[in-house]
Fold each of these.
Amino acid sequence: MSIPVEDVAVPARVLELARGAALTPVWHNQDGGLTFRTDDGRHIKHTPRTLETSFAGEADRLEWAVAYTPVPRVLEHGGDDVHEWMVTASLPGISAVDPRMDAATAVREVGRGLRALHDALPVADCPFEWTVPRRIENAGIRGIHLPDALRDAPPVDRLVVCHGDACVPNTLIGDDGRWSGHVDLGALGVGDRWADIAVASMSTVWNYGEGWEDALIEAYGIQPDRERLAYYQELWNAT
C-alpha cells in the first residue's frame, strides 16, 4: 500500500461518484484498491471484491464507531459483481506516512491515537468481533492453513474494540501535529489490544525503518510485551 506518485487511471464508477468534482489519488494497494480525494470534501474508495473484508461491512463499522471517535462519516456505498465502492466525508489531517510528516511525530501520534481509539470505543456495545478464534475461522474460510502454534493464543491482556488494521498509514495527523482520526476500519471488532499494538509497532519498520517499534508502544502508554507482540505479529503475517 502506498501513496501514488504517478498518474492513476480513474475507474468509470469513481468518475460517476465524483459528480464533476476534481479528483486527487491519495492511496493504492497491491490488490488494485484505489482511494481518491475530491475537491468538495469527500473521499472515494474503489476496490475489487475480496473475501477478506467488504465496504458494506466497513460502512456498518464506521456508522457504529463515528458516535465515539473521529472516523469517516459514510455518505454512500455500493458494488457490483466485480468491484465495491464507498464515499465518505473527509476528515482533517494527512496520513502518518505522508512525505510531509517526520517519523518521530508520526510514531508518537499513531501510538497516542491508537490508545485514544481503544479507550473511546465501548466494548460492551460493540457488535463486531476480531478475536483470535474469529480470525482463525475467517482464515479457514479463505483457505489459509495456520500453524498449530498460532491456534494457542496468549491470555487476553485487555479486551478493547480493535481497529483491525492499525498499520501506521491509517492514522491521520492534523496541522497541529496531533492525531486527528482513523481510516480503513473494515475489520474493526473486539479483541485483545495487543492485536492492534503489534501490527502498529511492526508497521513502523515498513514505513520509517528500524528502531521505532518501542517508541510507538511507549506513546501508547505501556511497556512492550514481547510474547504478545511476537504472537500477534505472526498471526497477522499468516492471515
Amino acid sequence: MKSVSQILSIFLLVVLGANAQQEKGITGSNNWLNNWTEFRPNKVDYGEANQILTGIISVNTKLIKKNKYILQGNVYVTNNATLTIEPGTTIISDSQSNAALIITKGATIIADGLETDPIVFTSNKSIKKAGDWGGLIILGDAPINKFGNSASVNLGLDTSLTNYGGNNAESNSGVLKFVRIEFAGKKVSGEENFNGLLLAGVGNKTILENIMVSYAAGDSFEIFGGDLKLKKMVSFKCNRDDYKFNYGTQCKISNSLAIRTSYLTSSLGARCINVASYDKKEEVDFSKNQTLVTASNLTLINNSNNIETDIQSGLIKEAIYIGENAAINFEKTVISGFNPAVILSDKIAVNQENLQKIRFEAMYFNSCKGNIFTEFNENNEDLENWYGNSIFFNVYSKGNNADTFIDFANEKIPDYRLRIGNITASNDD
C-alpha cells in the first residue's frame, strides 16, 4: 500500500483543501426537525377514518385534509393518473389487509405537505408497532442496471402493475415533501418485508425532501436503480437498513439522518447505509451504470446512552456496508457509536483503483470501535493508512452522544446537529 498512499496528494490535494473547515453532519441555522417530525408516534391520536381507499385509482384523485382515510389492501395508482394529497392529510393503514400504496410507472403522487402541516401515513392499531402495514412504493422509468432495463416488485403484489425501469433519468413521479411514514414494513413471507418507502426506477425530476420513516420493520428507505436526489430524510429506529441502495442507483443524498437503537435489529443485518450494485451478478448488466451514492452532511447515530457497554455486549454492528462494484463518495458526515464505522465487502480488493471509488472525506468518526475494515478481516492497517492520511481531513473523537450533539436526550424534538466548536482538527484515532 505504500505506492497507493503516495498518490494521495496528487489526486486529492486540490479537491479537499476547501473542505477542511466546513461544517460536518446535518446542517442548518435552526433545527429543521421542528414542527413536522414526530419521535413519539405511538402517543399520537390520529382519530377515526371516515373515507376508504381501496382497489385501483385510475383517474386523477385528490385527498383532502378534512377527511381521514383508511387504506385497505394494495391500492394502485395506475393509467398515468395523479394522486394529490393535501397538506395535513392523514392516511390510516389497515393492518388486517396488508395495506400498501403503490404509485405505478407513469402515475404520479403529489404529497406536498407543509412544515406546519405534514402528511402522515400511519397504522390503524391502538397500540402501534413496526410492521403493522405495508408501505409506500413509487415506481418510475429511470434506468436500472438489470438486463432489459426492467424489473418488477413482488412482495405478494400484482406484478403486472409493479414494473419499473426504463431510459428516462429525468422522469417525474411527483412530490413527497413533509411526509411521515410510521409503523410500515409488514412481513410478506419468509424473510421478505415491505419497506417504509421503496423508490424503484425513480427519476431526478421527482422531489423528495423532508421525509421521515419511523419504526419500519423492513428498511426505512430502499432505492432500486433510478437517478434521484434525497434531502432532509429521517430514518428513526427501523429494524433493518435505514437507507439501502441497489441495482445501479445514481443517488445524491444530503443533510439527512439515521437514528438507530441497539435494541432493534434483524438477524439479516441492520445498518444505517447499505450500498450494493446487485444481489446476484448474473442478474445485472455491467455495461450499465453500477450503484453510485454521493452523500454529504449526513448524521448516522446509535442513540445508546452507553455505547461501550452495548458494543461489548454485541448489540451494535457497523454503520455502513459497501458491496462489490458499488461506489460511494461521502463527505462531511458524522458516524457516531458503531462497531466499526464502515465495512467493505470481502470481494473488494484493497487497491488504488477500488479505494478511489470509495471515498470518505472530511468525516467525523465518533466513539466507533474501529473505523474502516474489510469484511471478515481484523487487520485494517492498509485502510487506516489510506483514510487516516491527513489529506482527507477525517476527524476522530471519543465523545459521548450527550456532549457531541446539541440536544441528544430530548424525546420530543431532539437536535442532532453537532455542538458548535466540538470538532477539532485532529487526525488521531
